[in-house]
Design goal:
Length: about 400
Amino acid sequence: MKPINQTIAHLKPSGIRKYFDLANSMEGVISLGVGEPDFDTPWHISAKAVESFEDGHTHYTANRGLIALRKQIAGYYHSRYGIDYDPQSEILVTVGGSEAVDLCCRTLISPGDEVIVLDPNYVAYEPAILMAGGVPVRIELTQDNDFKLLPEDLERAINDHTKAIILNFPSNPTGGVMTREDYERVVPILKESGIYVISDEIYSELLFEGEFCSPANFEQIRDQVLVINGFSKAFAMTGWRLGYLLSNADLSQQLTKVHQFVIMSAPTSAQYAAIEALEHGIADTESMRREYESRRNLICARLNRMGLTTNVPKGTFYVFTNITSSGLTSDEFCVRLLEEHKVAIVPGTAFGDSGEGFVRISYATSMENIKEACSRIEAFLESLHLPSESVDSHHGSHS
Ligand code: PMP
């Protein structure tokens, strides 16, 4: 047979999958590996999809999505984050944030263009860049800097071949956040270079401290920024497959061409549900956020007490825990924890090379599961018979 596209042939499957397959083949496993809310979609949101079927809304919508939904999205970004987008020309409704990532890459990248990603980063970015013919260039983030992007690192990574950077704050997997002050230090560099800024804001509602800030909040680079957001995390709607992409009108028109030929329009029933989510669902989001916050507090306290240094994440439902005190690699730690104590978590290396020495633990699960999983992790560490100073020296919580 003739060879398939070699870029695809050489793509590595997601490093998360292996653990799910292993966990699924075992009984009694507690999974702290998942990347989705454990809550079901609030029923008043689902009910609007049911209603849409009853009303016969079973056809395509406009390519960009229902205008009523685009108006809701515009109103939401205006009132919640102080950023204005025109529902007619600057908003595109997509099949999840996932489609939006792919659309950005395919629309912006010409073969050989460099695209900067932060390491560790969300698993879909580098494959999307590669599939579009681009070259990912990584900037390493560190626990000591709370996994933020630093201006000197950004400056060093940009050259004449750089087309774009992909940012994701609050971040999967680190839970790191960029504040307004943090952005103020990198925005002049972004402005000067003129590169596109793809800002994946899918966790914008899951922020526990301070105010959410987007690079699009900075008027001087607003037209360079492509904002990705969606309904999966904020409204517990992962299965609905709905997201959106905000950008200046010229870019939006180009993005819409790709969407038009590949997708046509996002699922109609999901769009009706999403209107309800934005109109009446914010209170649900707030109660889910409070619950995530209590779980975060519990899990961070327990992990730090066991000697696994864990920065308290300011957003998302993940902690990125330093496991070097165990003397194991990330992969060894995760495989042994799963096989010997039946807790599934994900090695930091699934998100990039600088994830070595870390594991990602999701707390999108019940308090009861979190407590039991922590006890099992503790038992696992005890079984390793670590010298006491290797644990003690890592005591104390990083903020
Ligand atoms: N971006 C990030 C950072 C994510 O964590 C996810 C989901 N895990 C997505 C995008 C995709 O989300 P969806 O396609 O469900 O909107």
